[in-house]
């Protein structure tokens, strides 16, 4: 078993202990365990996940993209049990945000001097050993390592979502720890970009949608909002929070980032959820919020839609838009590097 990754920076936070990784969403079948695997693949009963590892096609077909990716990571772990899973592969195992279905599984081979690929599995040579934990028999990079890699290598919206989630998951972790690890990394790749992520990262956003929304709002050139602002009620315990809030000429504008599942019926009666939303919006407006506007993933992934929503709410544009960031957002949210 490889040794635990050595600390590369002093004053790092204690590692939060996780009992286990996210479990594989579907059963995996090795070639050795299935004598007629090729026939099963040709007939459509099995699908190859990675070389030598298969899953039932009917179950695979029903998986969301991020769960297909998690399945690929588990399959890769069967092939490389001594590798340390890093980047979005470690994020998937730890339950941190993964967008779409990334094309590659990433792991560090501690005994390798050169990075190489085996199909869609990228086995990296480590410039320094990553910090990792043994979680249920799998070697997984820490939340700190995952956040720093995302900040250095991934789209700013994705990186912000991962960093925010890592901060929520471990209250002992700070952006100072992230910055310190990034600044002492042997490679300077992405260091400047990471600083911008750490300047903005926070445990305040409550979901990846809120984190991505915050990045897109800034990139569109709008005034920066307050996040998770309390609106006080007449009695204790009757307060509400709004995800985003802007004050403009004495008016308080509220914005709510609503995940698609919230009103899909998956969590209960969709009509009841919409009625509750209307009641809450009316309550907020009675308490001084001028207007409350809602958006979902479809509006954020197509920034012109979010722009139209915020302009109709009266939010002011105060800077030039960041067109390169906005132009590359769609691919990043689909899992492209």
Labels describing this entry:
single chain, alpha+beta, six-stranded mixed beta sheet, 14 helices, 40% helix, Trna Endonuclease, Chain: A, domain 1, 337 residues, four-stranded mixed beta sheet
Describe this protein's structure.
- This protein has 337 residues and is an alpha+beta fold.
- The protein has two domains: 63-200, no CATH class; 208-333, Trna Endonuclease, Chain: A, domain 1 (3-Layer(aba) Sandwich), CATH 3.40.1350.
- It has 14 helices and 13 strands.
- It has helices at residues 37-42, 57-62, 65-79, 87-94, 143-153, 156-169, 175-183, 191-200, 208-219, 270-286, 297-301, 303-313, 323-327, 329-333, and strands spanning 29-30, 46-50, 53-56, 84-85, 105-108, 116-118, 121-124, 132-135, 138-141, 226-231, 240-248, 251-257, 289-295.
- A six-stranded mixed beta sheet has the order 6-7-5-4-9-8. Strands 10-11-12-13 form a four-stranded mixed beta sheet. It has a three-stranded antiparallel beta sheet with strand order 1-3-2.
- Helix 4 (87-94) packs across helix 5 (143-153).
- The longest helix has 17 residues, at 270-286.
- The radius of gyration is 22 Å and the shape is globular.
- Residues 1-18 have low confidence and may be disordered.
